[in-house]
Write a structure and sequence with these properties.
By secondary structure, this protein is mostly beta strands. The protein has a domain of about 30 residues. The protein is elongated, with a radius of gyration of 18 Å.
Length: about 60
């Protein structure tokens, strides 16, 4: 599930790490100033590659 951040265009307050589905309605009202000026931003990704697999690590034994 994507993680979104919101920032109020009126007062600058930030709402961080909101778990929402892509098709969920965006938050509108700022919890700080109660103005309908929240702007949606993409937050931290929760996609992590671990272990051996198809990707190449950033450093290998052949790197100097």
């Amino acid at each position: 599930m994507p993680i979104f951040d919101y920032e109020c265009e009126s007062c600058g307050f930030k709402v961080l790490d909101v778990f929402q589905r892509i098709n969920d309605d965006a938050l509108v009202y700022c919890p700080e100033c109660n103005e309908p000026r929240l702007r949606k931003q993409v937050g931290v990704s929760n996609f992590i590659l671990k272990g051996e697999g198809w990707y190449a690590p950033s450093k290998t034994d052949n790197d100097k």
